[in-house]
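Re: weekly structure request thread

Next one in the queue (358 aa):
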Amino acid sequence: MRQQSPPVCAGFWPRRPTRISWHPYAAMCWRPTASTPISTHWQPCSGRSAHRNRTSIPCCARHVQWEAISSDMSSQKQSHNEEVAVGRTSTVRRWVRHSGVGPVASVVGGYLAMHTLGTGIRRYTPPTVMDFTRSGGALATSAAAFLENLGWPAAEVEEVLHEYREVSELLVRRYAEIELFYPRTHGVEAETSAVLYGLNRLLKPQSVVETGVADGRSSWLILAALERNGQGRLHSFDINRTAGRLVGQHPQWRLEILDRKEPEASLAHALQRVGPIDLFFHDSDHLYLPQLFEYSQVWPRMTEGGVFASDDVNCSRAFLDFCQERGQRPRFLFDSRKITGAVRLPGARSVQQGQLVG
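Done, posted below.
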């Protein structure tokens, strides 16, 4: 039999087969030999077993008309797109009947805005869990795992967390002694509280900066650790004069109330007086631009081996974007209704004297 040009067995066709033109006089199909490219040297195929598990099309397929394949695929794609469009229209009509025009218009409007305005809207939408996993950093759901992910040995972590259990009992008593000005939800979560105490005990920083104080839960925990260290100073910044009721007065604490009308300029000026920062913790305004501003002001002042941390990184993409632009892989703590992120900078600090070592 004279070989046709170019025959092909349907067993070699892609998963999504196109319509095939059958040769009316063929008694067998053709397939390429194993030792040659598909485009040359064809031989008859003896049966369907030769192409088992390659496709659902029987091996009696015969003589594909190559000239018609591309046009056939185009027509199928066009037909598919038309079916999808009809399906979407039907879906919209169905949901309008069930939910009304308002909710459907809101969803459709948001979808169109996301696809037309792109990155601009993306920055002002909260990140998803997938965004955190794509950042490449380790995820934790406990203070112990989070501190270990930042590089501290498990034995040291366990020791400071054992201390924290005792400290947390003192904090409960302190809460009972005063009347709170802010809701309890304004304070850091349970695991984040343990992280703050543990970070300050393990890092033994000379200079700690936190933005956002509220009643002072985080401030109280940081100061408890610094007091046990016997060194270090906490610089806290807030815009409300009622902030810090849990702490009151402490010799290792400086609370500065920023100008409400110009908090950014006020913070930038105050940070110049602070000097190098060993540990930073953001817990103030959680919108994209305010977060990004604070990060950009603090980052150049961080010391080697320091820890750059932020609460509520799930409220905007600022922390993720900031770390990505600087090639950092942050660690994350999924703590109840909030997510805390942190980066430990390269280098090591001497815990005895707070000096940097190479």
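The chain has three domains: 1-64, 67-117, 129-357. Confidence is low (pLDDT under 50) at residues 4-68, 350-358.
Next request, please.
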